[in-house]
Amino acid sequence: MLEARQLACMRGDRLLFSEIDLHLEAGGLLHVRGPNGSGKSSLLRMLCGLILPEAGDITWQGQNIRKNEDYFRSLTYLGHQNGIKEELSAIENLRITCGLAGFDIDERTAFDALERIGLEGREALPAKVLSQGQRRRVMLARLLVAETPLWILDEPLVALDTDAIGFMRSLFELHLEKGGMMILTTHQELEIAALTTREIRFNS
Length: 204
Prior knowledge:
By secondary structure, the chain is α/β, with parallel strands linked by helices.
């Protein structure tokens, strides 16, 4: 269970948000909405432990995440940037990002994941020759091999076509159906079946 109480975030001398509470259990989806610059990405980065809150605390299974190594082993975070190396192939990028996330996958597993997400025949191509949507799929393929219960995803559907968005929605719903949890930002209107669905909406 992930909980946050009275979170606040400053950017320079500007208060982005304050008094944010959230509660997420198995099968739960939290949708974070708002215009660009309103604090959505900052909240997600805060929940990942990448930035510290100005006020408030975040706990996983009742323990503060800053003292909880199990939390970071239970988390997969994908930011709004693709985070891939253009000179490396799709399969190399996937294997390296998985290794950096704390788990290794073999070449066959990586090939299978890239094929499932729609990159069959492009696995060995350098990322620099792929379209923006294909690069996004390389990053998203990590969700097919990650075994973490909590996914925190910042604009995961950017640059994806209709078929890819449909595939990702099915993947999200399967993860939640199995008892996973997900925190999501997206500008697209996307209905995702979940045991519980909550929303945080930021203003500009």
